[in-house]
Amino acid sequence: MTTSDTIYALSSGSLPAGVAIIRISGPRSAEIGRRLTDAPLQPRLAHLRSIRHPNTAEVLDDALVIWFPAPRSFTGEDVLELHCHGGRAVVAALFDALSVFENVRPAEAGEFTRRAFDAGRLDLTEVEGLADLIASETETQRRQALRQMGGGLSEIYDGWRSDLLRARALIEAELDFADEDDVPGSVSDVVWADVCTLASLIEIHLSQSRVAERLRRGIQIVLAGAPNAGKSSLMNALARRDVAIVTEEAGTTRDVLEVHLDLHGLPVTLVDTAGIREAEGLVEREGIRRAREKMRQADLILWLMPSDEMHSASPDDLLNEPDVPAVWVLRSKSDLASPAMTQDEPGTVSVSTRTHNGLEGLIGRLGKYAADHIALSEDPLATRERHRTHLEDCLSALKRSFDSDSKPLELRAEDLRLAAESLGRISGRIDVEDMLDVIFGEFCIGK
Ligand SMILES: Nc1nc2c(ncn2[C@@H]2O[C@H](COP(=O)(O)OP(=O)(O)OP(=O)(O)O)[C@@H](O)[C@H]2O)c(=O)[nH]1
Ligand SMILES: [K+]
Ligand SMILES: [Mg+2]
């Protein structure tokens, strides 16, 4: 496999569909365009053409054909797009026609985007923004991803990076011209003050990044409690469909089940888990282990306690762990509550999936929780752990550089260089070869 290969893939969704888009990128795209269609193609205009098999000349489909000569294409290479009818046999016939050409092969997942990156059409944060945009499920995720794809994040980091490179150049100029026993003069005082300001900007940026990461992956809300507490029933009620199996048998749920909800444009992942108890069976024990793991990773745990049980399991054992997520206690099966128990303890919420009592109120509270924990920022924010790691490296190099006046100026300038390098890694301007497979592996084939 080489990058001089021409690649092709179905870039639109699953078949059958009204229209299917086959994208072809690489040096043989022009020739393919000539041989599949018989008249010349104008750049970036849609042409309605019969597509013929290059060997038999049989007409395979009538399609819209668009020709994007390099470098003005998504990948920066010659790109041909065939918008054909979305039948499985149509696409299979066109793929068969393409396989006739030498050095033309199906694309791997993310390979078009990888080529766009290699050609400098997108930097890494823009690539990640594109992956997030394709994966986005809610309005707020779409907005955040689009901003990142448009280069909003790289712009900030590139600006900081050039500030640091300039600071370093000033320090080095001072080193070149100063006498050995010269005390660093006024130029470097200004430089260090600027570096200090930048460090606090980065600190603020980092402190906001958790919120943006949460928006990217969605708020994790885990339903937990004893077996038969009504977790799966609540999951189905909130998702408004039959996601989880519900039976009267304690220990029904073993696997972790997840559904994605859109609460007023905010992404929430709702997780149903196995009921927590001392279980005998191997399968159930594994289910409970997974349930506990999900609880630890949650942003919010909804702990269900059935209203018809006086002494039901409480989440107290969870609260002994350090770093516990927020826990809301829900009185489930409120339709079964005896009159003596109906007065709610303060802070608890009662719901019934039978009568739907309390459900709207719960949805409202969850929506408010999501809104409080996903602040929408107009400024681009770091959205991934990868960004945070490099920003933290940058910050510690900056702190090393100005923490000690006694350190030789050469070493302090070197710290500035390292800090700038960490920022360069975020947008991929500085060697990141080791991470590329991970980042591009996120894409589907055809992107
Ligand atoms: N009366 C009443 N019964 C309910 C309600 N919610 C659930 N149930 C019943 O309680 C039983 C257990 O419900 P599930 O949703 O399977 O409970 P679970 O917590 O997921 O149980 P496990 O997966 O076994 O841990 C079923 O028979 C449900 O029909 C409710 O609001 N009111
Ligand atoms: K059950
Ligand atoms: Mg269940």
Automatic annotation (TrEMBL):
(6S)-5-formyl-5,6,7,8-tetrahydrofolate binds at residues 23, 81, 121, 447. It is found in: Cytoplasm. Its EC number is 3.6.-.-. SUPFAM superfamilies: P-loop containing nucleoside triphosphate hydrolases (SSF52540), TrmE connector domain (SSF116878). Residues 218-371 form the TrmE-type G domain. Keywords: Cytoplasm, GTP-binding, Hydrolase, Magnesium, Metal-binding, Nucleotide-binding, Potassium, tRNA processing. Pfam families: MMR_HSR1, MnmE_helical, TrmE_N. The keyword Membrane does not apply. The keyword Repeat does not apply. Mg(2+) binds at residues 232, 253. Its main location: cytoplasm. Binds 1 potassium ion per subunit. One of its GO terms (molecular function) is GTP binding. One of its GO terms (biological process) is tRNA methylation. PROSITE patterns: G_TRME. Gene3D superfamilies: P-loop containing nucleotide triphosphate hydrolases, Probable tRNA modification gtpase trme, domain 1, tRNA modification GTPase MnmE domain 2. GO terms for cellular component: cytoplasm. Belongs to the TRAFAC class TrmE-Era-EngA-EngB-Septin-like GTPase superfamily. TrmE GTPase family. PANTHER family: TRNA MODIFICATION GTPASE GTPBP3, TRNA MODIFICATION GTPASE GTPBP3, MITOCHONDRIAL. HAMAP family: GTPase_MnmE. Homodimer. Heterotetramer of two MnmE and two MnmG subunits. This is tRNA modification GTPase MnmE. It comes from Stappia sediminis. The lineage of its organism: Bacteria, Pseudomonadati, Pseudomonadota, Alphaproteobacteria, Hyphomicrobiales.
